[in-house]
Amino acid sequence: MENVDRVGLDWDLIYVGRKRLQVKQPERWVEGVSNLVHPDYSYWTLGYALSLQGAKRLLGARALGKMLPVDEYLPVMFNKHPREEYMAQFEQRDLLAFSVEPLLLFPTHYTGEPGYFSDTETSTIWDDEATTTDWDRQNTQRSSKQDGQGRPMPPGIAKEGGGVPSPSSASNQRDEL
């Protein structure tokens, strides 16, 4: 960080641990900083420094409603994601991102090594609303039990035939819990 401060680098995010996904070409060094590069598409967001300005940019893009994993979201926001359909979801992609080189953080195990475990690495996209799961989606946006503004209703609150219950009937149901 001393080198960053010395050259007055304007930054939003600095990776300290990640998986480089583009290895055909070396990443460009940051001029005047001996241990910083401009990152390309990366995964395994193991650690990073985030400035207040960077946090505001990430929150300002309103990503929470788009359910994009952080490993996808960060490269989108610094305009280095290979999938155009992800990039198209975010108009401003001007996050000032950098990465330390060499990296400071590493995973304890890599894919395929003994002891490696991931609940996301080999997962698939779930888009089967007809199949009941242990989390039955009764409180999702796709639920038929929604209030008048399309928001999910708490269990036991939605009236038969739809619509929003009166405040008195809703409070009575809460008292019964």
Topology:
Blueprint: H1 2-7, E1 13-20, E2 36-37, E3 42-50, H2 52-60, H3 70-77, H4 84-87, E4 97-100, H5 167-176
Parallel strand pairs: 1-4
Antiparallel strand pairs: 1-3, 2-4
Describe this structure in words.
By secondary structure, this protein is α+β, with helices and mostly antiparallel strands. It folds into two domains: 2-100, no CATH class; 137-163, no CATH class. Helices cover 21% and strands 13% of the residues. It has five helices and four strands. The protein has a four-stranded mixed sheet with strand order 2-4-1-3, with helices on one face. The longest helix is centred in the C-terminal third of the chain and has 10 residues, at 167-176. The relative contact order is 0.13. Residues 139-147 and 149-177 have low confidence and may be disordered. This is Hexosyltransferase. Residues 166-177 have a biased composition (Polar residues). One of its GO terms (molecular function) is procollagen galactosyltransferase activity.
Largest sheet: 4 strands, mixed
Instruction: Give, in spatial order, the strands making up the sheet with the most strands.
Output: 2-4-1-3
Task: Provide the domain count.
Answer: 2
| Helix percentage | 10-25%
Mean pLDDT reading:
78
Q: Which stretches of 5+ consecutive residues score pLDDT under 50?
A: 139-147, 149-177
What is the ordering of alpha helices and beta strands? Answer: HEEEHHHEH
Percent strand: 5-15%
What is the total tally of β strands?
4
What class do helices, strands and sheet pairing give? alpha+beta
Shape: globular
